[in-house]
Amino acid sequence: MAKIALIGAGSGFGGRLSVDILSFPELRESTIALVDINRDAVDAVGGFVRKVIDAHGCGAKVVATTDRREALDGADYVVVAISVGGPAYDGVPYHYEIEIPAKFGVSQRVGDTVGPGGIFRTLRSAPEMLAICADMQELCPDALLINYTNPMAMLTWIVNEGTTIRNVGLCHSVQGTAHQLARYIGAQFSEMTYWVAGINHMSWFLELKRNGEDAYPALWDALENPETFATTPFASRSCVTSAFRDRVDAPHVGVRSVLPQAARPAGAVPPRLPVSERRSAPAPTMGERGAFRRRGRAQGRAGGALERVRQPHHPLHRDEHPLSLQRQRRQ
After folding, report:
1. Of 132, 209, 259, 320, which one's alpha carbon is 20 to 30 angstroms from that of 175?
2. Is the dihedral angle over the CA atoms 8, 302, 321, 28 positive or is it negative?
3. Residue 326: is it exposed, middle or buried by C-beta count within 10 angstroms (0-12/13-18/19+)?
4. Cα dihedral angle (305, 310, 316, 321), rounded to 10 degrees?
5. Short-list 294, 291, 217, 289, CA closest to 256
6. Is residue 29 a contact partner of residue 1, using CB atoms and an 8 Å limit?
7. Which string of DSSP letters, residue by residue, matches 131-162?
8. 116 phi and psi, to 5 degrees?
């Protein structure tokens, strides 16, 4: 059976990805090798995954270790979700990568993709990614590397240029944005279809439909309605308001101009909002961002993770699951 190594398993990805893996019957006899530099964190995740296995009678084996080479030895798949130098989105060096550029007039929403934050995150993450690939070339040269670490585009580019390891970068940004846009127009996600192009964290919804009909007119109306943002998740609202703050002196800047990942019809020029309105909702402080993320993680842990194993149809269709790609190719 497959051996799947999860590097950075002490993060929020370790437990959730393990549950996702176990939701596929083909992978329920796998060996899941969890590795993290934090012994307490990886042991906690390992204990959680073992409880999932026991509760559902899976035949999977779990190994929790701080030795990366032990986890990689003979692996078929390697999932990487690491943060180098400190927490991914809290504390240092993350705060420095946001706050120092801000002192020089460069405001960043998250700072993990492009701009100064993205570049410096790449510089501190790339050497470790290459070191992981070097170990893979020695211990599991045929394994598929599945990367969840940002900046996704730059890191997968570096892996492709600097190693022979097969790799793919995965992210939930498109799905998350699709859910967000559905909420804006009061639609159920099951009613939505979309066609998206771009690269990670920089993609565009070329088509957005609700029950087969163009949903963009309803989206434009929703984005001109202040009540839309009164019920929008904190992080999503701040993304728009921080863009207002950055561009208050630019002509023709409105919600339609700065909404992330929503394509505007060609030639459409949205009305400019008064400066007073655009300044009315300041971007969150670093402390507020960290508190929001901690609340989200706590809510995620409280949600029924075990139930996902019982679902006959997992949200990620089996034929699209990255760990099924090789099986499909062989067929």
Report:
1. 132
2. positive
3. middle
4. 100
5. 217
6. yes
7. HHHHHHHHH-TTPEEEE-PSSHHHHHHHHHHH
8. -55, -45
Query: Residue 88 and residue 203: Cα distance in Å, rounded?
Result: 22
131-170 pLDDT per residue, tens: 999 999 999 999 999 999 999 999 999 999 999 999 999 9
Tell me the pLDDT tens digit for each residue of 23-75: 999 999 999 999 999 999 999 999 999 999 999 999 999 999 999 999 999 99
Determine the longest span between alpha carbons in the chain, in angstroms. 61
Q: How many CB atoms lie within 10 A of CB 261?
A: 19
CA 135 to chain centroid: 25
* Residues with catalytic roles: 172
pLDDT the model gives residue 252: 34
Q: Is the pLDDT of residue 10 over 90?
A: yes
Q: Give the SS3 label for residue 304.
A: coil
* pLDDT tens, residue by residue, 265-274: 444 434 433 4
Residues of the chain above pLDDT 90, percent: 60
Beta bridge partners of 63: 33
Residues belonging to the chain: 331
Phi–psi pair at 62, nearest 5 degrees: -120, 130
What secondary structure letter does DSSP report for 67? -
Distance, CA of 15 to CA of 211 (rounded, Å):
35
Q: Tell which residue, 227, 226, 224, 235, has the closest CA to residue 179.
A: 235
Give the H or E element holding residue 245. Answer: helix 234-246
Q: Which of 88, 66, 53, 78 is nearest to 142 (CA)?
A: 78
Provide the edge-to-edge strand list for the sheet that holds 61-65: 61-65, 31-35, 3-7, 77-80, 144-147, 166-169
